Amino acid sequence: MAPAPHALVIPYPAQGHVIPLLELAHALVDRGFTVTFANSEFNHDRVVAAMSKKDGGAELLDRVRLVAVPDGMAPGEDRNNLVRLTVLMTEHMAPRVEELIRRSGDAEGGPITCMVADYNLGTWALDVARRTGIKSVAIWPASAAVLATLLSIQKLIEDNIIDAEDGSALRQEGTLQLSPDMPAMNTAHLAWNCIGNHDGQEALFRYLVDGVRAVEKCDFVLCNSFHGAEQATFARFPKIVPVGPLLTGERRGKAVGHFWMPEDHACMSWLEAQPARSVVYVAFGSFTMFDRRQFQELALGLELSGRPFLWVVRPDIVRGDVHDYPDGFLDRISAGGRGMVVAWSPQQRVLAHPSVACFVSHCGWNSTMEGVRNGVPFLAWPYFADQFVNQVYICDVWKVGLRAVADEAGVITKEHIAGRVEELMADADMRERAEGMKKVAHGSVKEGGSSHDNFDMFVEALKA
Ligand code: UDP
Asked: Which terminus in the chain has less CB density within 10 A, N or C?
């Protein structure tokens, strides 16, 4: 008899990766797996601290076994330095993960039989799986289109679009399109080209090239997307298997991996008091940062829109850490109950709330999937790397959102923000298309849907 399935799930250590991978972990528990979830020590402590502040939070930790593995960085080091974090992780996490697998036979959950590793970890995790003789699958938590670009690096080099050594764009203002039916991308938005310094860029490029080699050895790579969202990409890259949209956060009462405590109570009861489809929800994910001018312009734009708004202002959202709101802004909005500002929201519950009318978003892939599966139109305001491709999907392919466009000085002005919100609110066709995408998204994860079938296939492959 095959041993009871026990999966080791390892996310890349960032908020936008931990949430969907923990959701995947719960989905595996639903299918009879024991799951050990290995966060970096730093993130493990944050997730556990956030959970223990929640009512009944401690019990929620029981379903999935959360374990901590050191990432090699000192406690106070800058974990937004992705290049350094990535290098250290390989050195420090690989031996600890190997030890975890080898010793798992003596532990309560029984021996670990398979690994689900975030693609972004690079090759080390899959190598450990091979060395320890367990099955492995990689999961890509962003769009299939971006993964397709990585899988096409060799072709991009041959077509003289990027440099073979460091991946830099060979043409200024270059765009690339892997096929006429896939979204066009700006070469400047390729992940490695978004790293500010040349050495970092080259290191990240090499790392990603290596990752591609590892994937060539996998049977398939799972992706948090769905067939109807990226049909053309899945047709051309059959190795990428969609199992999404993962229902992040819809599991009430189960750990979903927030690093900070979502401010459930206050903002959900504030939403309850708002009319149906009236609220502008504004959130820019876990690491987008603004300068002071843009932050103020956004505040004034929300005020000018005249609509109720719920705005997530993370403590570190403004460079320099000072939240310099426009004069009297907080008093004005709180006096009339016009708006609410929170440090972190239960976003998936917010987007599912009937009072929400539109989503001002940085277009991170999780936020994109969450907006789509709740049928909420977007004001698409990307900031970094793949978020620009996601904006193309939102605005040009699915047509469920409008672009936020900067003026000549590079500022998205208050007038523009208020005007775009108004356009979104008035556009019944846009709302209808968003509802249509929502249906397709839900259909794909229901029994008989394509993502559901793919999930079954992957579960069987891991159990075999
Ligand atoms: N999120 C949240 N509350 C917030 C802001 C974000 O729960 O106030 C969650 C959001 O639902 C998503 C994740 O954080 O699951 C952010 O991931 P995304 O890919 O959108 O952006 P990133 O943080 O990676 O830029």
From this structure: N
Shared domain check, 451 and 366:
no
Q: Token pair for residue 454? A: 């793919």
* 345 Cβ below 6 A of ligand 1: yes
Ligand 1 touching residue 359 (CB < 6 A) = no
pLDDT at res. 54: 66
Q: Mutate which of 17, 289, 366 to test ligand 1's pocket (most atoms within 8 Å of Cβ)?
A: 366
116 and 193 both lie in a single domain: yes
Q: Phi, psi (5° rounding) for residue 287?
A: -140, 5
To which residue do tokens 């039989």 refer?
A: 113
**Together in a domain, 131 and 224:** yes
CB 434 within 8 A of CB 375: yes
Separation of CA 350 and ligand 1 centre (Å)? 12
| Length of the chain, in residues | 464
Q: Is residue 439 part of a domain?
A: no
- What residues make up the domain containing 58? 6-254+447-463
Are residues 359 and 379 in contact, defined by beta-carbon separation less than 8 angstroms? yes
The span from the CA of 198 to the CA of 420, in Å, is 37
| Top mutation candidate among 140, 223, 367 for ligand 1, by most atoms within 8 Å of CB | 367
The Å distance, Cα 335 to ligand 1 centre, comes to: 29
Closest CA to 285 of 150, 387, 427, 177: 387
Atom index in ligand 1 nearest the CA of residue 19 equals 15
Tell me, yes or no, whether 279 lies in a domain: yes
Task: Give average pLDDT by consecutive 10-residue segment, the chain, 464 residues.
Answer: 87 93 92 95 91 65 87 86 83 95 87 94 90 93 94 92 89 83 89 81 86 78 97 94 81 71 85 97 93 94 97 86 85 89 92 97 97 98 94 97 97 98 97 98 96 95 88
Q: Note whether residue 286 is domain-resident.
A: yes
Residue whose CB lies within 8 A of the most ligand 1 atoms, among 316, 347, 353, for a mutation test? 347
Dihedral (CA of 76, 80, 81, 86) sign: positive
Q: Examine residue 262 and say whether the peptide bond preceding it is cis (omega within 30 degrees of 0).
A: no
Same-domain check for residues 219 and 367 = no
Q: What spacing in Å lies between the alpha carbon of 98 and ligand 1's midpoint?
A: 30
Minimum-distance ligand 1 atom for the alpha carbon of 14: 24
Structural Rg of the chain based on CA atoms? 22
Report CA(346)–ligand 1 centroid distance (Å): 9
